[in-house]
């Protein structure tokens, strides 16, 4: 996949960033975008990446769905980078089975909250004090349009956790923005990552159709995408980079939807 970014040369020079989930998909695009423009980046994942990361991107293997994993990443981030100027919470997803509310055990609800809400809460709690001490910093929480358009068959817990993340983000912004730290939320729709492409391929094989038909059928299931395609990871990364930059110096406490027009209402 071609990666195209609109770079402002050295916009993030001397900045240090933590990007969670930065070895694949959106996280990888964000880590790459920031490092290309001068930032030193530390990223995390449960598994060691199969492909080498850019030289400017440090890696820590950790499970952020656990308190101990978050503690380990926070310590490594401060040890390797000394200070953190930017945090982008990308880690998220759903492992819940299909079947609606009845399929969601307490364990499934806890998994959704640990991955989509508490990982961000725990890392913020560990890293925000140093930002507040310097009266400078920017945080992005990656939510989802599913907080507004939940799919009850399979993503109720995920959607509820993302809604909680958005609310938490707003509350945090009101608390820390007067002290120099900006907090915003980005809510993507369908992003055409490697995993999404593989899913379309599986759907096509199962239905006995081609990938483009399977892609269009999936978009209909999601309620449609007016521009006719999913967002690309680098497009979402570009929005995140703008919100982290000094160009967005007065933007805080806001949520930015990037979904190709999927959400049908004014919000």
What sort of overall outline do the alpha carbons produce when their principal axes are compared? Answer: globular
Helix content: 40-55%
CATH architectural group of the largest domain: 3-Layer(aba) Sandwich
Number of strands: 7
Q: What top-tier CATH class of the largest domain fits best?
A: Alpha Beta
Integer average pLDDT = 91
Tell me about this structure.
With 267 residues, the chain is an alpha/beta fold. The protein folds into two domains: 16-191 and 231-258, NAD(P)-binding Rossmann-like Domain (Rossmann fold, 3-Layer(aba) Sandwich), CATH 3.40.50.720; 192-230. 43% of the residues lie in helices and 14% in strands. A seven-stranded parallel sheet has the order 3-2-1-4-5-6-7, with helices on both faces. The longest helix is centred in the middle third of the chain and has 29 residues, at 106-134. It is globular and about 55 Å long. The two termini are 32 Å apart. The mean pLDDT is 91.
Describe the secondary structure blueprint for this structure:
Elements: E1 16-20, H1 25-36, E2 40-45, E3 57-61, H2 67-81, E4 86-89, H3 106-134, E5 137-142, H4 156-176, E6 181-188, H5 194-207, H6 211-221, H7 233-244, E7 255-258
Parallel strand pairs: 1-2, 1-4, 2-3, 4-5, 5-6, 6-7
List its traits.
267 residues; 7-stranded parallel beta sheet; 7 helices
Please provide a brief summary of the model.
With 267 residues, the chain is an alpha/beta fold. The chain has 7 helices and 7 strands. The protein has helices at 25-36, 67-81, 106-134, 156-176, 194-207, 211-221, 233-244, and strands at 16-20, 40-45, 57-61, 86-89, 137-142, 181-188, 255-258.
